[in-house]
């Protein structure tokens, strides 16, 4: 088994080993992973954080040892808490990193960093405050950054910045936590899931107080939430059908 780490700001993880293949998620600076299969130009990897699998360009990651991988797995995550910051390499060159990037491997990558750091678990009341950092971010299928994000990438990153783990896709996140019967039982920071006409969960958002929801739909935006689903305050129509509400923390 081989192991790797992302040493660049944002690297695409694709469904197939080709630059034209679907973006399934993004690998942020400091994310580490197992290499499941290695080809001439591409490697199939499994991310340590959420066990998500996909293909990464061999030029866009750095190999690490099994011991380094295990050490990173045991560490309490230390994350960049700035929208954009820089790490500096041994030659004094600056490389940008984004909100939520992992800083546990600075010594492995021989980089230095003097920006803001967040680590450990925070109070649930901080979830919505963190979500506002992404407000207005354009929707990007597979995205996980303040410059492009999808609905489950948004909820995953907000929880990650507060010290909690969510799986990657909305349908996967819906398997976590405790189901609530009514919106009235929910608290700000709980998750609301929505399904399509075939009953497949395809969307997720973060419940706010007073029957509002913040979610990624076109952009990270705030809409109304009722027992039918999400009511778009601009279009004045329901855009998503409510399936279940889950309390994860």
Task: Describe it.
The protein has 249 residues and is mainly beta. It has helices spanning 66-74, 106-109, 126-131, 151-161, 170-173, and strands at residues 2-5, 10-14, 23-28, 32-38, 42-47, 53-57, 62-64, 78-80, 84-88, 94-98, 117-119, 144-145, 148-149, 178-180, 191-195, 201-207, 212-217, 219-225, 229-232, 237-247. The strands form 6 sheets. A 6-stranded antiparallel β-barrel has the order 15-16-17-18-19-20. Strands 6-5-4-1-7 form a 5-stranded antiparallel beta sheet. A two-stranded antiparallel sheet has the order 2-3. The protein is globular, with a radius of gyration of 18 Å.
Topology:
Blueprint (H helix, E strand, L loop, with lengths): L1 E4 L4 E5 L8 E6 L3 E7 L3 E6 L5 E5 L4 E3 L1 H9 L3 E3 L3 E5 L5 E5 L7 H4 L7 E3 L6 H6 L12 E2 L2 E2 L1 H11 L8 H4 L4 E3 L10 E5 L5 E7 L4 E6 L1 E7 L3 E4 L4 E11 L2
Antiparallel strand pairs: 1-4, 1-7, 2-3, 4-5, 5-6, 8-11, 9-10, 12-13, 14-20, 15-16, 15-20, 16-17, 17-18, 18-19, 19-20
In a nutshell, what does this entry contain?
The longest helix is centred in the middle third of the chain and has 11 residues, at about 150-160. It contains 5 helices and 20 strands.
């Amino acid at each position: 088994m081989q192991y790797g780490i992302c040493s660049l700001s944002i690297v695409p993880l694709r469904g197939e080993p080709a630059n034209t293949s679907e973006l399934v998620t993004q690998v942020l600076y400091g994310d580490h992973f197992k290499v499941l299969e290695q080809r001439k130009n591409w490697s199939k990897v499994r991310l340590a954080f959420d066990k998500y699998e996909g293909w990464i360009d061999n030029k866009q990651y750095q190999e690490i040892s099994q011991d380094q991988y295990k050490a990173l797995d045991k560490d309490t995550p230390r994350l960049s808490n700035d929208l954009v910051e820089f790490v500096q390499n041994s030659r004094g060159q600056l490389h940008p990193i984004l909100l939520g990037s992992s800083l546990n491997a600075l010594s492995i990558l021989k980089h230095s960093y003097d920006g803001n750091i967040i680590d450990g678990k925070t109070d649930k009341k901080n979830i919505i405050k963190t979500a506002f950092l992404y407000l207005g971010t354009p929707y990007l299928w597979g995205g996980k950054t303040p410059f492009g994000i999808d609905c489950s990438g948004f909820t995953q990153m907000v929880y990650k910045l507060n010290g909690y783990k969510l799986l990657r896709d909305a349908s996967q996140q819906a398997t976590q936590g405790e189901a609530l019967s009514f919106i009235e039982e929910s608290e700000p920071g709980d998750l609301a899931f929505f399904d399509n006409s075939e009953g497949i969960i395809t969307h997720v958002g973060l419940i706010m107080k007073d029957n509002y929801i913040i979610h990624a739909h076109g952009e990270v935006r705030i809409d109304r939430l009722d027992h039918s689903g999400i009511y778009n305050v601009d279009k004045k129509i329901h855009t998503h059908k409510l399936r279940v509400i889950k309390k994860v923390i």
